[in-house]
Amino acid sequence: MTTTSRPVLPEDVTATLRKDETQADATAMIGEPVIRTLQEAGVYQLFADGHAATGALTRLARDIARAHPSAAWNVVVSTTSELLAQRFALHTNVNATWPEGALWAGVFASFASTAQPTADGMDRLEGAWPYASNSAWAQWAILNVAHTELGAAFILVPREAFTIERTWHALGLRATRSDTIHLTLEAVARERFLPAETLFADLPDAAPALRLPVRLLTAFGLAAVALGAAESLLDQLVEQTQRAVSKTVRAASGFPSRGSTQPGLTTTLAEGVSRLTAARVLLDHSATDLDEQAQQAGPISVTVLTETRLSLARVVRDIADAVHELSLVGGSRWCLEGSAAGRAWRDAHVACRHAALSPSVGFNLGGEHLVSPKEAHRSAAAGPLAPSRPS
Questions:
Q1: pLDDT tens-digit series, residues 8-43
Q2: CB contact at 8 A, 71 and 16
């Protein structure tokens, strides 16, 4: 019995990821060999032609996360941010000057960013963007801005235009480097800004990946990261339990054999397998449904969007429950620094707690749509927007 499926990445790429994962957790920085290897594997070009979609992202993110959750997280952030950049380019005169397969940082959560008109007809932009995932290796960033005239808007910014402050020290996914971006630009042309409602509007005639709500696509990718980390945790517990009960080894280091054959442990392991298998099947099924909708004419229906968010809520709840129960039988040693299982435990928990994956929000949205179907649920199902006006 296993939670694994056919790998997406070549074995040599996976080996490079595993080699860096321990060091990356300690330094809070993904190693350059990992970034270079993923670039050479074409990972950051997943959506280059606008045709790879939800299923491809979830399989890729889960496969990377089994070896290096932080690298998987940053791949999701970078690839889906590039999709937003492609959307951006469709609506503006901004030239697509970023290199093919560029690494992106994306931030939608700043309440401390403003753009105001100046006397010479330009705009002055300044702000701080916390939780800037992928900031350490980013070549570009897509940032939300509260514009005094446009309202909620976004802007694309090259790396040389902003600075990064190392302010956040996460309990898990440490190497994602979710730091704070600082930026002040005195003269910005108005056409460089794009209103959020335009950036996230339906694109019924675009390539399939561009027709998907990008924020929902990101949520799928992050759920796959949580699933991959949780499966890594389960694999380690199963392996150590097998060693502990083997005839040649009475007890694995740090894992006493006493009680290892008792029903409580085996039941928890089996339940963990079933929860994570169910989560994987539902995640794959929902991704397939969403991709099929993206192939059809017209906007993706609000019913499909809300059902998808409801499914994601179930997936994340099962992952979180499985990780919690497995950690209880694994013991307090999993809370120690330097433990591979401890890293997987922390990474999975942190991934499950991203606002885009909140089970309560997903269940509430799905329930509201069941009793009162309406188009107003569309925006909530697609994901949260940036603040609409400067305070």
A1: 788 889 999 999 999 998 888 999 999 999 999 999
A2: no
Closest C-alpha to 82, from 59, 99, 63, 64: 99
Quick: pLDDT tens for 115-141: 999 988 899 999 999 888 778 899 999
**Model confidence over 323-369: pLDDT tens digits?**
999 888 877 777 777 788 888 999 999 999 988 899 999 999 899 98
The continuous run of DSSP H or E covering 85 comes out as: helix 69-91
Report the CATH fold assignment for 102-199: Butyryl-CoA Dehydrogenase, subunit A; domain 2 (2.40.110)
Q: How far apart are the first and last CA of the chain?
A: 55
**Contact present, 249 and 82 (Cβ < 8 Å):** no
C-alpha to C-alpha distance for 349 and 325, rounded to whole angstroms: 12
d(CA 300, CA 295): 9
- For residues 242 and 253, what is the distance between their CA atoms, to the nearest angstrom? 12
- Given the candidates 1.20.140.10, 3.40.50.410, 3.30.230.70, 1.10.600.10, the CATH classification of the domain at 208-382 is 1.20.140.10
CB 182 within 8 A of CB 165: yes
Q: CA 165 to CA 246: how far, in whole Å?
A: 50
Rounded alpha-carbon distances, angstroms, from residue 248 to 242, 244, 259: 11, 9, 17
Q: Hey, is 164 helix, strand or coil? A: strand
* C-alpha dist (Å) from residue 103 to 81, 84, 134, 366: 9, 13, 8, 34
273 near 3, Cβ under 8 Å? yes
